[in-house]
Amino acid sequence: MIELGLSRVSRLVQQNPLTWKAIHIAGTNGKGSISAYLSHLLSSEGIRCGRFTSPHLIDRWDCITIGERVVKESLFRQIEDQVKLRDQTLGIGASEFELLTATAFEIFNHEQVDVGVVEVGMGGRLDATNILNNVLVSVIAKIGMDHQAFLGSTIEEIAGEKAGILKPGVPCVVDATNESAVIETITKRARDLKIDATFVSPSKVEEQMPPLAQLFHKLDLEPHQQENMCCAVSALRLALSEIRPQTDTFSLLPRLADVKWPGRLENVSLQPLISRTEPILLDGAHNPQSAEVLGKYVDRKLRADSNKVTWVVAASSGKDLAGVFRSIIRPGDNVATAEFGPVDGMPWVAPTNASELAGSIRSIPEIGRVQEFEGELLPAIKWASEVADGQPLVIAGSLYLVSDVHRLLRDVQK
């Protein structure tokens, strides 16, 4: 289950003080991409960098990387066993995510990283990652309505929880495209702490970071990708000014074109799982904000040649189904509703029943064919592929669904 708070993880980690500096990233959307950009640029500059994101993609340990490589399973299990033994011996009763966070941090110690790029799990103020005490820069990405049961029912309350990662003496970078209520909340928090806050956005990139603006002209990027790059590059400049002041941050920018972040606007081939030769679009959009981004991308890129899109969708239990799917699924689209499988290390996560999800989808006016698939995912993908008949096919609605697709592909390619 989810248990926010810092007391348990603090007792776990204080046994082994952290030996590295951190870049700490909070937000509802964009955290993973910003983490990937930062990790890639730091590693390519020869700085030993660890990265901790959540959730994992395929295996429980692939949320931890050292120098852009997934940590070895043997090392992960060795450190995890030590952490779990300490938890048991001290009678702490840490949650699964707290155990994972302590494991990641101690792997960073073991691997002698210089910088750890750390993504908040949920919220910020009471998230297990917020025990970090040697932070180079804090980053606040795009904030939206998500996890209201834990973070608050208003955007201001949620922003306040995210801004809880801000610390005295630590500069912060904020995505300035956030709505005004979010900006006001973070500005107040930064003012109270007397820290420098840098607000960045693509609309001001010519003024703030001209070399990044030049890169934007060369790359075909979506608006949210530009926003995330602005945050990452601004944070990198602040971090390097402390640890590698002689480095010209802007000289590293061409390397951003090489960064790939699985499950975000990812085009993949599903052969040999299915006979379809055309790529499918795989995206982990799982809240109204990320779904809106996906919907705009699909409308611009996929509907230009075909008015109809076929979808395979799933959602975590408790999600705002209408808020997610009404911004991406259009009249005439065909939809297979599916369920993702058990999530390793996150037993509290469960999928929305495929029939319940299908009922919500059928309420979309003039919707096309809707078919529910309870249990195994592959039959849903095969049905959707046949219905799409070579036309656009998108799998979306949950990061755990993305994980299952990648797992199916890996298993069939062994």
UniProtKB/TrEMBL annotation:
Please give the InterPro entries that the UniProt record associates with this protein: Folylpolyglutamate_synth, Folylpolyglutamate_synth_CS, Mur-like_cat_sf, Mur_ligase_C_dom_sf
Q: In which pathway does it act?
A: Cofactor biosynthesis; tetrahydrofolylpolyglutamate biosynthesis
Q: What cellular-component terms does GO give this entry?
A: cytosol; mitochondrion
Q: Name one GO molecular function term.
A: ATP binding
Q: Which GO terms describe its biological process?
A: one-carbon metabolic process
Q: Which UniProt keywords apply?
A: ATP-binding, Ligase, Magnesium, Metal-binding, Nucleotide-binding, One-carbon metabolism
This entry's Enzyme Commission designation comes to: 6.3.2.12
First and last residue of the signal peptide:
none
EC category name: ligase
What reactions does this protein catalyze?
Answer: 7,8-dihydropteroate + L-glutamate + ATP = 7,8-dihydrofolate + ADP + phosphate + H(+)
Is the keyword Lipoprotein assigned to this protein? Answer: no
Q: Which family does it belong to?
A: Belongs to the folylpolyglutamate synthase family.
Q: Which NCBIfam families match?
A: folC
The protein's name in its UniProt record: Dihydrofolate synthetase
Q: Which organism is it from?
A: Penicillium citrinum
Q: Lineage of the native species?
A: Eukaryota, Fungi, Dikarya, Ascomycota, Pezizomycotina
